[in-house]
Every structure is written in structure tokens, then in C-alpha cells.
Amino acid sequence: MPERTDADEDRRRSPRFSCGGHAEINCLPSTGILVPGTIRDLSLHGCWVDTTQPIDCGARAEIVVRVNDAAFRAVGEVRAIRGHSGAGLEFLHLSAGGKDMLAGLVTDLARLKAVMNKLKSVRCEMGTEPFRKELEEGEHQATMLSEQFPFLRTVLPVERLPDSPEADGAAFTGKNRTAEGQSLVIRIDLFG
Fold first, then answer.
1. CATH fold of 6-101, please?
2. What HEC string does the chain produce?
3. Between 76 and 133, whose confidence is greater?
4. Using 50, 70 and 90 to split pLDDT, how confident is the model at 26?
């Protein structure tokens, strides 16, 4: 299969954004077999899913998409395949709620991409070492803020299924826990 080019990207009806998530694909007519997959990118009109089982090009399928805490169901058609491990699906039918959920996800992904692009351009303008120093100073400021405002160290309880491997008794207490000695900093590798 030929590689995608920038011209291919320009022909899309809407931009795609890299993201992570999970999918369950039920080929139609349904046999009851769900094909699990990993979402690689998402747009207002479709997504790319890495699958554990091959799906035929042109197949229609019901797909449940889960990205972060958002989930929606759509009927789609496989428009492209890559080897035995991936499928590009076009969304054909979504409920009004599903369209709203998808639009919100794409908006959030667009904002994140804009922030990342801005950070990368600032890094290029400043040079690597001054940018790294500024990031470290920002981390120091975040640590100082969390010391001044202890509630910033509060971690909300995580809800897990009782049979999940990560399940521990603390996750079901419903009480807030405090992450002592940890600053609330999200590390982003802009140098890799």
C-alpha cells in the first residue's frame, strides 16, 4: 500500500489528530464477535484503529470509541486497511449526542496540538538549553504553588472495576487521598 503524502492529508474533509483510546468493532451483519482495537487518530469524519484481527475493506461495522472519559457509538465503513493490523473507518451514522461528544473531543485535540506546536516553535526560537532551563524553572514554580496551596496535592479517588488488576481497597473508599511530596507537573518531552 502506498505511503500517505501531504496531498492525501489535504483531501480529507476534516483534520485528523493523533490520540490514544480504545475501540470495540462489531462487523455488520453482527456475528456477536467484537474486535478490540486501539485508536491512533480521530477526526470529525472517522478514525484509524489498530486491530488485533483483520477487517475487510468496505465492511460496515458498529464501533464504540473510548478516548479518555468520553465514549460514543457510531456506524462506520472501513475505507482503508494497512496489513493485518489497522483500519481507517469513516463514520456514517452517529446520534446527536455522539456527534457532540466527537466534536468536543476533536476540539480538545485541536487545542492540545496548537499548544504543542507553540511550545515546539518557542523551543526552536530559544534553543534547546535555555528552553529546558525555563521548563525546569516552571516546574520549581509549580512545586512552590503546591506547597502554598496544599489542596493542589489532593488526588481524587479512582474508580476501578472490582475485578480489574489495579483494584485495591483504597480505590473504593470514596475518600480523597493526598499525594504527599509530589508536585503536580505534567512532563512533556519536547526534545525527543
1. Thrombin, subunit H (2.40.10)
2. CCCCCHHHHHCCCCCCEEEEEEEEEEECCCCCCCEEEEEEEECCCEEEEEECCCCCCCCEEEEEEEECCEEEEEEEEEEEEECCCEEEEEEEEECHHHHHHHHHHHHHHHHHHHHHHHHHHHHHHHCHHHHHHHHHHHHHHHHHHHHHCHHHHEECCCCCCCCCCCCCHHHHCCCCEECCCCCCCCCCCCCC
3. 76
4. very high
In degrees and rounded to multiples of 5, residue 191 shows phi and psi of: -110, -5
Domain ranges across the chain: 6-101, 127-192
List pLDDT tens digits, range 78-121. Answer: 999 887 788 999 999 999 999 999 999 999 888 888 888 887 77
To the nearest whole number, what is the mean pLDDT of the chain? 75
